[in-house]
Design a protein that fits this description.
Length: 471
């Protein structure tokens, strides 16, 4: 309030309450109404000229008579124009425009409807649902598609955002598997000539054997005949006659090398021959008994070396592209909780099972202590090779509707923008972004579905609403 205006109001109030007599009697001042008006007029004359638009018109004698339009008194004098800077108000006035510009370089142009409707207001207000109208600042460009939320709504909705970073994404595939024998380490002990089993060693299915262990003692007339011919050729060779093919025939009949060497040393053909294990392993099958007659090609024993074993995992067709040769794998036995084995993918079978739509993936594992046994069930975790760092965001940041993948960018100051992206590999709760965002962009990781729903609503309303009118 202007000091002169306050003085005039105070004196007018005192005169109205009989203060004029008080002043005239006690101060000895013969101040009449005309003189008083002259004093007030001189005070008014000293006031600086008003600025701003004309607010209203007041009686020239400062009487409480006002008019919205220009008018005159009964004696023909015009009412005084009161401008914005001369208006008397007992309310606390807002800071001047200059001070506001210093405090906030952005000037609010108007307030727009929070739901995107073509409704604006020059002053703050709320819509029918109690939502605050959003300020539009000077210098802001066209922000079609940008959602603006008040700080209160952001806090109530639990909106959180994180920056986009470059990271190594290791994708882990969890699949079932079955322990199988290494086909390259399975041996079948056979005889290549008709023979009789003289004696079988006390070895049964499941026993462990080592290379050279005696399995059975057999008699074969065909092998004995070949052995006698071999001795004849050896004796002839001593007289300078070249050897024939008796040695080769013994080898073709599967006679062990140590037996051939013993015949060559002693020049005698043994009546029976000991048949030995060709490798270390366990006995998978025993097909022979004492006194049996074996025909050529008959199987005596079936052995398997289980020092290295296979695990065949069933990988779904949709995840097969993430599996590569040499990828690390961890195998956990269902029958032995707490135990785990490390290996690597060696083969991806080139066939998809029609019934299950899965492919077999072979993992080679060293079988320490022989804990892995054929046909055991296992849980397999197959990881990807260490890829180059990629732009990645948490899985919760991506809204996947099936036809599009969207993230919500946090532009700051309560502004959010949906952005369509292209996705890469997934793993460890994160997903790679191959297109649509840049490193350092902030994406919403919590309550993004609410912002996306509001964005879709705004777009739907904007489809049939009139363009926003700026006051």
């Amino acid at each position: 309030m202007k000091p002169n205006a306050l003085t005039g109001l105070a004196l007018a109030a005192m005169l109205a309450a009989g203060g004029a007599g008080y002043w005239a009697g006690h101060r000895g001042l013969a101040v009449g109404w005309r003189d008083w008006l002259g004093i007030e007029g001189s005070l008014a004359a000293n006031e600086p000229a008003g600025t701003g638009p004309i607010i209203y018109y007041q009686d020239p004698d400062r009487k409480p008579v006002y008019s919205a339009q220009p008018r005159q008194t009964d004696d023909g004098r015009p009412f005084t124009a009161v401008r914005a800077s001369q208006d008397v108000s007992f309310e606390v006035k807002p800071p001047s425009e200059e001070r506001m510009a210093q405090a906030d370089p952005k000037r609010v142009l108007y307030y727009r409807n929070p739901m995107g409707l073509p409704d604006t207001s020059p002053v703050p207000k709320k819509d029918s649902m109690g939502m605050d109208y959003l300020p539009v600042y000077e210098g802001e460009g066209n922000e079609d598609g940008v959602i603006k939320l008040s700080p209160g709504r952001i806090q109530r909705s639990g909106v959180r955002s994180e920056p986009v970073r470059r990271q190594n994404i290791v994708q882990t595939i969890h699949v079932p598997g079955v322990v199988q024998l290494d086909e390259r380490r399975v041996s079948v002990v056979t005889i290549r000539a008709d023979a009789f089993v003289q004696e079988v060693a006390p070895i049964t299915t499941g026993d462990r054997v080592t290379k050279g262990t005696k399995l059975a003692r057999i008699y074969s007339p065909e092998i004995s005949t070949a052995g006698a011919q071999f001795i004849t050729e050896l004796n002839a060779a001593a007289r300078g006659v070249p050897e024939g093919g008796a040695r080769q025939r013994l080898e073709n009949l599967g006679v062990p090398p140590e037996v051939i060497a013993e015949i060559e040393r002693s020049r005698k053909v043994p009546l029976t021959i000991n048949w030995s294990a060709p490798r270390d392993g366990i006995v998978l099958e025993r097909s022979v008994s004492d006194g049996m007659k074996m025909t050529a090609g008959g199987s005596l024993f079936r052995l398997a070396d289980i020092s290295t074993i296979w695990v065949l995992a069933d990988v779904p067709e949709r995840q097969l592209a993430a599996v590569g040769i040499g990828a690390p794998a961890t195998v956990r036995l269902r029958g032995r909780p707490g135990s785990s084995f490390e290996g690597r993918v060696s083969v991806i079978y080139p066939e998809i099972a029609e019934a299950t739509r899965t492919a077999k993936v072979r993992i080679e594992i060293g079988n320490r202590d022989g804990m892995l046994l054929p046909n055991m069930y296992a849980d397999v975790d197959i990881g990807s090779d260490d890829p180059a760092p990629q732009l990645a965001v948490p899985d919760s940041a991506v809204i996947d509707s099936g036809s599009r993948r969207v993230v919500i960018l946090d532009l700051g100051e309560g502004r959010f923008e949906p952005r369509e992206v292209k996705l890469g590999r997934r793993g460890d709760g994160r997903v790679a972004i191959t297109e649509g965002v840049a490193e350092g962009d902030r994406v919403v990781v919590s309550a993004n579905f609410l912002i996306d729903a509001e964005s879709n609503l705004k777009a739907a309303l904007g489809g049939f609403a009139q363009p926003e009118a700026k006051p």
